[in-house]
Amino acid sequence: MRIEKHQIEAANSDGIARHQKHLQFTFDMVPNAASIVDKLSAFNVAIPSWALGAGGTRFGRFSMGGEPGTLEDKLEDVGLLHALNGASGAISLHIPWDIPDNATHIKAMASQLDLRFDAMNSNTFQDQPHQALSYKFGSLQHTDAAVRKQAIDHNIEVISYGQALGSQSLTVWLADGSSFPGQLNFRHAFANTLQSLEEIYKSLPSDWKMFIEYKAFEPNFYSMTVGDWGASYMLASKLGSKAYTLVDLGHHLPNANIEQIVAILLMEGKLGGFHFNDSKYGDDDLTVGSINPYQLFLIFNELVEGMDARGMDHTVDLGWMIDASHNIKDPLEDLLQSVEAIMQAYAKALLVDTIALQQARENNDVVKSQEILQAAYQTDVRALVAEARLQNATALDPLGFYRSFQVRKKLIKERGSKAVATGL
Ligand SMILES: [Mn+2]
Predict the structure, then answer these.
(1) What is the pTM of this model?
(2) Contact, 305 vs 363, CB < 8 A?
C-alpha cells in the first residue's frame, strides 16, 4: 500500500494552527531555530530490513500480521515510513534474508519511493540451508581455513549485491568468540579475523566503506573476538582508510560511556556508522530514546561537535541506522517513535551553546557547563522536528496519521494475518 501526498496534506490541515502557535513560541525561545529546521529536514536515518517484522526472543515470537514477506514489501514499508516522516529515506539490507534477485526492478522501485540503499549486512552468525560448512565455532576467526574462506566469499557476494543496488558500504558484525574458558586462542582468533577481513577488504570498491561492528557479549558469553571499540578500531586501522568502527548503542557493557567512545573515534577519523536503539540491561534492542534519552542527547552532542570540528556533513559522512527489535509493538509504529527520538536528540544537540560551553570549560566552571547542556536538553524541540517534516511535505503527526489511516489493518488485509517477515 502507498500513502498519497494529498491524503497527508488533508490530515495535516487539522493540526496546523496549533503547530504554528507552538512553532512561533519555539522560534522566540531558540536563536538558531530556522537553521536547525533546515538541518533536521535534510537528516535521514536508514531502516534495517529486519526491523519491519515482529522480533522475537529465545522464548517466543508474536507476529503483528501483515508483515512484509518479500523484499518488495519491505521497500514498501520503509516507503510508508518515509512518506510519513521524510526522514527514513534509506533501507539497509541483510543477505541472505533479502537477496535482490532482480536488482534493476528493486532499484527502480526504491527510487519511486525516494529510497536509497544504505549499508549491506552480511550474515555469518547462523547456518543457512544447503550451506557446506557450519559457523558453530565462528566464521572469520575459525580454526579451519575452509570455513573462513566460505565466510569471506559470502561477504564478497554481499558486496556484489550491494553494488548492483548502488549501496556504498558493508557492515560486518561477527558473532565469533567463545563461550567457555580455554575454548579459543584469543591471539589466533583475532589474527584469523584480521586476515579474513583483509581478503574481504581487497574486494571493497574504491568508493565503499567497511564498517566493523563490535559487541561485548552474546551470542558468545565468555569472549567476543570483536568485543569492544578497541578491537574494532585496531582492525579498522590495520585494514586501511576505507575501514571504520561502527557503534551500536546496545553493544556495550552496562554503564559504558558511549559518548566518550564516539568523541575519540570521531577525532581519529575512524567512526563510520551508528546503530541506534536503547537498553536497560544489555543488548535489549528497545525503542531509541525510550529508556535513557539524556544519554542519546549526550551522544548526539559529541557527534555534532566532533563532526563540525572535522568539517563533516551531518547527513552523509556517517552511516545512520536504527538497529532494534520490535517484540511487542507494531514495528512501523516503533520505528516512527525511534526516528522521532533521534530527531529530537539531534535538534537538542544543535542548540547547545558551544561557545559558552567552551568558555565554561576553560574556566573549569563545572556548574555552568552542566547548565548549558541541560538548557539545551530541556528545550521542547517537537515543533522544530514537526516543521522539518512539513518542509518535506510529510505528516505533521506521523504516528497519529498511521493510526487514523489504519495502516496496519490495511496491511493485514493486503498481506494476511499470518504473513511473517524473514529474519531472526
Ligand atoms: Mn547493530
Answers:
(1) 0.97
(2) no
Distance between Cα 96 and ligand 1 center (Å):
17
The contacts found for 349-358 with CB under 8 angstroms, 24 or more apart, are 349/297, 349/300, 349/301, 349/303, 349/304, 349/305, 349/376, 350/32, 350/35, 350/36, 350/39, 350/304, 351/30, 351/32, 351/36, 351/376, 351/379, 351/381, 352/301, 352/304, 352/305, 352/376, 354/305
What are the tens digits of pLDDT across the range 358-406? 999 999 999 999 999 999 999 999 999 999 999 999 999 999 999 999 9
Largest CA distance in the chain: 66
pLDDT tens per residue across span 235-247 = 999 999 999 999 9
pLDDT of residue 63: 87
Q: Give the per-residue pLDDT at 421.
A: 80
CA of 370 to the centre of ligand 1 (A): 31
Distances (CA, A) of 178 to 131, 142, 214: 22, 11, 15
| Distance from Cα 7 to the centre of ligand 1, integer Å | 35
Tell me, in angstroms, the distance from the centre of ligand 1 to residue 400's CA.
Answer: 29
CA of 50 to the centre of ligand 1 (A): 11
Question: Which distant-in-sequence residues (6+ apart) come within 8 Å of 199 by Cβ?
Answer: 152
Q: Cell 547527513 belongs to which residue? A: 315
All residue ranges of the chain with pLDDT < 70 are: 423-424
